Amino acid sequence: MESKGQSQIKVVVVGHVDHGKSTMLGRILLDCERVADDKLEKLQRICLQKNVGFEPAFLFDSFAEEHEQGVTIDSTRVDLELEGHRFVLIDAPGHSEFLKNMLSASSHANFGFLLLDASEGMREQTECHARLIKLMGVSQVIVVVNKMDMVNFEEASFKVRRDEIADFLSRTGLHALSVIPTVALFGEGVTKPTSNMPWYQGPTVMQALIQLANDATARQQKSDVGSLRMTLQDVYRFDTERLFVGRLSQGCLRRGERVLFSPSNKAATVKAIKTYDNQSMESCTCGDSVALILEEPLYVERGELITRPDEAPQVADQIKVTLAWISSETFSPKQDYLLRVGTLETGCRVKLCNALYDEVPLPNGAVEEAMLICEKAVPFDTPVDGSNSTHFVLCDETGTVAAGFINGVGMMQETSRVITQPELGYVSREELEAKQGHGTLVLWLTGLPASGKSTIARALQRKLFSRDVRAVVLDGDNIRAGVCQDLGFSAADRSENVRRIAHIAKLFLDCGNVVLVACVSPYIHDRERARQIIGSAKFREIYISCPMAVCQERDPKGFYKRNISRELTGLTGYDDPYQPPISPDLTLDTARLSLEDEIEKLMAVVDRSLTFSYALLLETDQMALNGQKSAASTFSS
Amino acid sequence: MGNLRDLENESIFIIREAYSQLRSLALLWSMGKDSTVLLHLVKKSFLGKFPIPLVHIDTGYDIPELLQWRDDFVMRHGLKLIVGQNRDALSSGMGPEKGRVACCTAMKTEALLNVIAENNLDGILVGIRRDEEGSRSKERVVSPRGANGSWKYKEQPAEMWHHYNWQLGAKMHLRVHALLNWTEVDIWEYIAQEKLEIPKQYFAVNGTRFRSLGCVPCTGKVSSSAICLSEIIEELKLTRTSERAGRAQDQASAYAMQELRSNGHM
Fold this sequence. Notes:
The structure holds 2 protein chains of 2 kinds.
Chain A: E1 9-15, H1 21-31, H2 37-49, H3 64-69, E2 76-82, E3 85-91, H4 99-106, E4 111-117, H5 124-135, E5 140-146, H6 155-172, E6 175-181, H7 205-219, E7 229-238, E8 241-250, E9 252-254, E10 258-262, E11 266-274, E12 280-281, E13 283-285, E14 289-294, E15 305-307, E16 314-325, E17 337-341, E18 344-352, E19 367-380, E20 391-396, E21 399-409, H8 429-436, E22 441-446, H9 453-466, E23 471-475, H10 476-481, H11 491-510, E24 514-518, H12 524-534, E25 539-545, H13 548-554, H14 559-564, E26 586-589, H15 595-636
Chain B: H1 2-21, E1 25-28, H2 33-45, E2 54-57, H3 64-77, E3 81-84, H4 87-91, H5 100-118, E4 123-125, H6 134-137, E5 142-145, E6 173-176, H7 184-194, E7 208-209, E8 222-223, H8 229-238, H9 256-262
Parallel strand pairs in B: 1-2, 1-4, 2-3, 4-6
Antiparallel strand pairs in B: 5-6, 7-8
Helix pairs in contact in B: 1-2, 7-8
């Protein structure tokens, strides 16, 4: 959430207990001369009383119990300014008993130090912590092989550890920026190069840290990008005005824009953005805490997610998640838990995917896939490019028991089983493809009304026709006029509309056609179901992307005009949500591209897919024959 | 600059969360620099309105001019002020000479717990920061306290991302530390940026000033020539002494603040 301009680089140190995490952070503070003289004297007195050498760890450990037992109980953080960068060093406990403290610390970090003892190597908490920080959103780590003095500064020992950790990290999906041999207690390899290990030419921990900050700052130039996401905290009624207060976690918002509240699915226009003393702002960006005044008198409550209607989040009451169980309480699939996502709270049940836990209890620190069945629908984003998106926590009456990320809609599989033609002995799609000399495909064109779907579908069909490729267009408007006459524009009716179109597309596909679907199909889960019905090998999702303002200007059917005058309501992208594809096979920006260019790009997709089909023909010929044989035997029995 | 804006936005988010999740919230105000920044942030959170009361714990040993400044400030800004004082302890002669920890416990902790009980508060906003001293460095943003004010620092609840714990047992209350991630320099830079009114005791007179405000008998001055905000900021960036070096109760023993705070001290 905190990412603006010169933003902080937050680094959490993790690893097994006693491998030297707090010591390393303490040493960094000491050598950067960031410790007040009186504090240093006080710690020296404490160490003297305990008859131990000076412990840099005590700069982070401060409870009497932590000093007595030489163990970190809870996390803390220290700000450190270095070479123009603002760092936050976050200490985390390594003892398994304090896992929830380690997780609390990691949730605020964007990078990690993964530390291990050169003589002990990877231990249980090293592995556990690595998995957990990945889950909490940290993907890059600086690996520190500490206590090199215990292995006589030998290069061979270091290499063993380095290979061991590289192998493990590749399995967890963490990326190691560097692997550094150190003796943290004395700062060797941490704040100063080490003369004891002349074989090591790489950076010190401090150098690696500054390199990381330089890279991160370079990447962070685009802090306002991404779709608007703002969590609604509260609605204040001051004087006569209703103020919708919350914080932007992504993107930016300008006065006059349309916003959608999810899950309630209500839309409104932003009349004013206010800050302190009723000063109005023209716009606000990621990280800002603001208050919105709306044109329309909406009734919504805390818990909603505010977005643009044409960049709507997914909304579902059954969701797939990855979670870390961080409680000593026993997990039960029969218990009601409280799910917290953004500011939304709802009761839920948890179904673990791994059947093992039907038999044995879920251990503290386990990372598992699960399905959450919620009382209320939850708005969320799913991961793009491996980045983490919407996080959540689960609570019971004892407090937080789990935390994790949402992966997607826990979809019901299409239940009706349509039997494929060859099984019944009919002419198969593969035979048709072989005979007609071209393959088959469904191109699913999704986008806002007036984004250009039908225009593109028409032109593409012409093009294919001229090349003797059999192509049909399923146009959303046309299908609504006939097959789907009984359906309206509620979310459920829109789903059913898409479901029917998907089945029709599948029938045409099996008849040897290239099928061009031109349909708004605003929901991600509906398009995913269409992919399931059609089969992902033959399904291509094409995002016809066009800014709302351009669609409004085009407005060939007068929808937007009638919508603004409120003669018509429920227009997708204005009143109703549109969920853009997460990773479409092709995106066509119709506001920038010419129709010719669009067709060329689409033809490339078609050619690639159809050529692919030809290559498969030899194999499928054989399979089709085998299929026929087995179908024949079914008939005879 | 970007950093102050991040800190301000995060603090406002926390204050609004607390106001939304708790039934009865108040702001603990010592008139010091930190809680005065917090007061300003509360005002920002509610667009200039001030929907919660202030609580001041009057130990009886406060700097007398500060009490005058307090009343004047409250009147000018139209705020609601609750003053807490442990009169029994004061009249029975409690003072630092009976032991600094004992005095702090009676005059501050007990007085605060009484105000919380009498006013049925379930949460108080407190302007402590991590970089002040060790036990505060380990705090949660939202930190539960038992009926007797006790802080179970070895069993703090998980606090992930911005999902704070608002669960409350009977007779418990929550300390909401909206400035936890600010540093001393951040506070002064923010005071300068927002042109906040602060007590004049922070500025140097005849070569000394208060770096941290507290009771007269237990708060020492630092030698300083800083007579304006920019000079204070300059001085703090170079200093080799810690902020609370002049606070006698901190020095009573190695873990005095841990002991005080585990029993409900702020």
